[in-house]
């Protein structure tokens, strides 16, 4: 069966992709470019040029000859294989988000697994930038806890509400582990960390029944966030578990409150 030929990518988008992958600081190395071009079956016609121009010229020459973008997208898949970024997830996320800003103009998005998924085509640069920054800006207006941005920055920039919520809930568990040295997860982690008899984290001095109730309620709030948003998002397909911007802001504000009370 013939492989479907994908249409050529517009030159300006191709330039943006090339500049991202060929960036002097955050992009691919020269040897990596040569290796991945070969693996993607794209001729390395300008190997002595700067990295981004080397990529751009190779991509343009391929498209002009073959009238499709298949191998260019294959190159992106190869270079953005998550296995290459083990131990350096932040670098992967940085490149992925920068690439997605460009790919949005052709209706594609690079997922966390390094595979392409179809999205709505972005019409203008301003639209792309607004989509990338709106949620982050609104969270800043709410004075969200810095921990939210520490764990969710990449997702916030791509405005992926589903994964933003998922990553933010994970940040709560990670914060508890860092404070207590525990290794458990979920309800077991919370029960041990916020035990009334032997609390590893206290939100008050537990000197009265009312304060004990507040402490228990806080622990149950965390369990609720874990149960409703973390467990569900981990096991439900994104297309089914729909979280809009308003819901995401409310959820993230709750998680921000949790982080503040644990300080």
3D structure, described in words:
With 263 residues, the protein is mostly helical. It folds into two domains: 11-122; 126-261, no CATH class. Helices cover 62% and strands 2% of the residues. It has eleven helices and two strands. It has a two-stranded antiparallel sheet. A hairpin with a 5-residue loop joins strand 1 (108-110) and strand 2. Mean pLDDT is 85; it is low at 235-240. This is Conserved hypothetical protein CHP02391 domain-containing protein. InterPro entries: CHP02391 (IPR012654). Residues 118-145 form a coiled coil. Keywords: Coiled coil.
Averaging pLDDT over every residue, what do you get? 85
Strand coverage percent? under 5%
Question: Helical proportion?
Answer: 55-70%
Principal-axes shape call: elongated
Work out the helix count: 11
Largest sheet: 2 strands, antiparallel
Order of helices and strands: HHHHHEEHHHHHH
Low-confidence stretches: 235-240
Number of domains: 2
* Strand elements, count: 2
Quickly give the structural class.
mainly alpha
